[in-house]
Write a structure and sequence with these properties.
This protein has 4 domains: 83 residues, Uridine Diphospho-n-acetylenolpyruvylglucosamine Reductase, domain 2 (2-Layer Sandwich); 118 residues, Uridine Diphospho-n-acetylenolpyruvylglucosamine Reductase, domain 3 (2-Layer Sandwich), CATH 3.30.465; 105 residues, Alpha-Beta Plaits (2-Layer Sandwich), CATH 3.30.70; 87 residues, Alpha-Beta Plaits. A hairpin with a 4-residue loop joins strand 17 and strand 18. The chain starts with a helix and ends in a 15-residue tail after the last helix. The protein has 16 helices and 18 strands. 35% of the residues lie in helices and 21% in strands. The chain is of the alpha+beta class. Helix 9 crosses helix 11 and helix 13 runs antiparallel to helix 14. The strands form 4 sheets. Strands 15-12-14-13-17-18-16 form a 7-stranded antiparallel β-sheet, with helices on both faces. A 5-stranded antiparallel β-sheet has the order 5-6-10-8-9. Strands 1-2-4-3 form a 4-stranded mixed β-sheet, with helices on one face. Keywords: FAD, Flavoprotein, Oxidoreductase. Pfam families: FAD-oxidase_C, FAD_binding_4. It comes from Gilliamella apicola. Its cofactor is FAD.
Length: 452
Amino acid sequence: MKKLTDIIVDSDRIITKDHIPQSHLTDGLKSHYGQAEILVYPKTTDEVAQLVKYANQNNLKITTRGAGTNLVGSTIPNGGMIIDLSLMNTIIELDKSTFTVTVQSGILLQDLQQFVEKQNLFYPPDPGAKNATVGGNISTNAGGMRAVKYGVTRDYVQALEVVMADGTVLNIGSKNIKDNTGLSLKHLFIGSEGTLGIITQCTLKLIAKPSVFETLIIGFNTIEQAVANITTILQTLTPTALEFVERQVAQWGERYSGFQFPLPDSKAYLIIMLDGANKQHIVQQRQQLLANLGDCNYFIAETIEQANQIWTVRGSLVRAVEAVTEQDPIDIVVPINRIADFIHYTKQLQSQSGVRMLAFGHAGDGNIHLCILRDGRDDKQWSEALEQIHNALYQKCHELGGLPSAEHGIGTAKVKYFNNAIAQENRQLMQQIKQQFDPNNILNNQVYITQL
C-alpha cells in the first residue's frame, strides 16, 4: 500500500489536520465550517488518481475544491481528505484550427478569458466570480450575465478528463463539433458538483471575439414595467446580457463603487449589452429595439469608461451589501414572464417579516439573485428568520413554475427545496447513477445527491 508521501512527494503539498487553514474548511460564504484529516495539492491527473485510490484503501471521504467560491456548501468537508486542484492551472493547448482550448481544471476563469482574448478569441461563459476555477464552473454548470445570448458552461465543454471514484481515469468527448456516438457521458459530470468524478482537464469551445460592444440602459417607473418589456426585447434582438435592477438596489452599488448610475429619476432599469462585428450592426440593433419600445428613457454609454462604470455598479451589488451586513444569497430561476410576480412577492414578504431583501438578476433567463440582509440579528434570530424566509421564497418559486437553483447548484444548503421541487422518480434515478459511479460514496458525500 502506497504512503501519501509516495504520491505527493513535496511535503509542502500535504497539510495535516491541525494545520489545515480555516479557508479550506468552508465555502465562499464562510458562515459554516467542516473538518478534514488531510489537505493535498496535486499537480497532475496521475496524482489525483493515486490520491483517490489511497482514499479508498484508507476509507477516507473526499471533498474536491478549486478556488472555494461555492455558495451552497459544496466545498465544506465532512471529514476525510480535501483535494485542492488550484495548482492544476496549466493551459495545455490552444488549437485555433478547431477553436478549442485544453486546460487543467484548476485554472481561474479570469486567466482563461484573458489568455484567449489576447488571441482574438472568446470564451463566453461569464459568471460573477471571475476568480472561480473552470473546473468549479463545470461542476456547477455556471451561467452568468452572457447566458441569454451565448448559453452556459455546459454549451462550451467539448471533452473532459475525469478521475472516477476508484481512481480510473476517464476521457470523454472530443474536439468534434457534432457527436452522436453513444450516450453523452460528459453531460453527467457537468453540474454534478463533484459527486460523480473529479474533473482534472477539459477541452472548451471558443468563438471569434466580438469586435464591438455597447451598453444601453432603459429606465422605467416600476419593476413591473421593466419586466413587461423583456419579451419585446428578446423578440427584437438577442442581447449579450439583459439585467434588471431597481433604483433602490442600484444605489447600494453606487455607494460602494463611487460611480453614479445613469437615469437617476427612474425607479427600475433594464441594462442591455449588445455585441457584434461592427458598430453599424450594433446601431441597427439598438435603433430597432428603441423603435419597438416606443417612448422611453434610455442612456447609451458613449465610452468604454462609461460602460465599465455601469457594469461595475451592477457587479458590486453583493459586495456592497456585504460591506454593511452579513447576507444570505438566494439563486432562484422562474419563467421570464413570472419575474415581476416573484419580485412583488419578495416585497410583500419583506413587509411582513421586517427582513430586508434586495432583488436583481438576469432578466433574459429568469435568474433572480436575492440578498437577504442580517441587519444585526443574533444567531438565533438570524437562523429563525432565514428558515421562515427560505421556506416562503422557495414555495413561491415552486408555485410560479420555477426551480431552486439557476447556477449556484444545490450543495448542502438547498437539499430540502430540491427534494420538494424534483419528482421522487427523478431523485431515485439520480441516486442510482451516483451509486453506479461511486459505490463507496466517497466523492463529495456531503452534497445533496447522497441526501435525497
